[in-house]
Amino acid sequence: MIIRKEEQKITINEHMRGGDGSVQLRQLLAPEQFCGHGRLFSRLELAPGCSIGVHPHNGESETFYVLQGTARFNDNGEERPLYPGDVAHTPSGQFHSISNAGQEPLVLVALIVNS
Amino acid sequence: MIIRKEEQKITINEHMRGGDGSVQLRQLLAPEQFCGHGRLFSRLELAPGCSIGVHPHNGESETFYVLQGTARFNDNGEERPLYPGDVAHTPSGQFHSISNAGQEPLVLVALIVNS
Prior knowledge:
The structure is a homodimer of 115-residue chains. The first copy, chain A, has no helices and eleven strands. By secondary structure, chain A is mostly beta strands. β9 (87-90) of chain A pairs antiparallel with β1 (2-3) of chain B.
């Protein structure tokens, strides 16, 4: 099946996980399309100054793939920059946060799979 | 953990699934990072004229997210074009193929999750 760009579900999440501003989430797969093995495959866009607050993942991993922009990524307590093409992987039992550290939109693909 | 763009494993797959030319696969996650719930999260790049041949997926789904270029996608027997931002999802038990139908590189994110 094809899910055209114009048909994809878009959600605006304000202060996501306690972060600043808002995050636009474009759903690429619905949770039920993971058949119980995961729950999120989405394109995320954060305007300059926006962030997703610190949160853990338990029983699942989350992976970010940076398509555009510059991020500041809290990798289980260590702050590091991310650039286009970089991947940040948070296994079960660890925590992270991410913010737009640049002047252009930060665009990511996010994936949550069970662990 | 961070997997920098420069550190990602790149594979060139010739005549992938019987297709034309070659496909460059940039590994975003290693199979073991799926903890048994999937096996592939990669950026794929196909030059003009290149393709991945027809093949089924059983016991798993594959999803393509088009980042750049124009594709011709065989969706379980039906040929359809794909454009940037479109998603093509092939559940378990179905088959697909994909080719670069344009004059610029076709760039995709591919995800294989168990079903």
